[in-house]
Amino acid sequence: MKQVTIYTDGACSGNPGPGGWGAVLLYGAHRRELSGGEAQTTNNRMELTAVIEALALLKEPCIVELWSDSKYVIDGLSKGWAKGWQKRGWIKSDKKPALNPDLWERLLALCDVHTLHYHWVKGHADTAENNRCDEMAVAQSRKFK
Predict the structure, then answer these.
(1) Given 64, 90, 97, 113, which is the most exposed site by the fewest CB atoms within 10 A?
(2) Is 96 helix (H, G, I), strand (E, B) or coil?
(3) How far apart are CA 31 and CA 59, in angstroms?
(4) DSSP per residue over 73-93, as a string?
(5) Alpha-carbon distance 94 to 15, whole Å?
(6) Contacts of 91 by beta carbon, 8 Å cutoff, 6+ apart
(7) pTM (2 decimals)?
(8) Can you say whether the dihedral through the CA atoms of 94, 96, 100, 104 is positive or negative?
(9) Cα separation, 136 vs 22, whole angstroms
């Protein structure tokens, strides 16, 4: 399988408020940047959307090294929380409804296609690709102000 590295980030001005997301995909010498946004959203929805949009671009099953500064995304996937919520009908272990089930449903379906390795990276630090994703996400969010 091909190995792809994906960096993602989401941003929101106010929570909820105008939001944006950015992703960088790296495969060999190839690089692709993508971004988007919404007028009224949350930071976590943008974090999830960035990963979904990046994975949706892959045309065949791949080994994916996913880098994100979102504990919500990384822990939700790597610790199996999202699959647990899904099994319980989108109810968390504390019996409260899980947020963003529409996006988690899409993301889990994409995760079933690919082999993902999860990496949390400190936001706004020394990771150039994560900082680029943040720049794109913030720029997208500003389009809705």
Answers:
(1) 97
(2) coil
(3) 15
(4) HHHHHHTSHHHHHHHTTSB-T
(5) 23
(6) 85, 97, 98
(7) 0.97
(8) positive
(9) 5
User: Average pLDDT for residues 11-24, to the nearest whole number?
Assistant: 96
- Is residue 16 reached through a cis peptide bond, with omega within 30 degrees of 0 on the bond before it? yes
What confidence score (pLDDT) does residue 114 get? Answer: 98
| Residues in CB range of 23: below 8 A, 6 or more apart | 6, 7, 8, 9, 33, 34, 35, 50, 51, 53, 54, 133, 136
Q: In the numeric block, which tokens belong to residue 91?
A: 């109810």
* Catalytic positions: 9-10, 47, 69, 124, 134
Q: Would you state the pLDDT for residue 124?
A: 77
Q: How confident is the model at residue 91 (pLDDT cuts 50, 70, 90)?
A: very high
Distance CA 98, CA 89 (A): 9
Secondary structure (3-state) at 69: coil
The yes-or-no verdict on residue 96 having pLDDT over 80 is yes
Does residue 122 surpass a pLDDT of 90? no
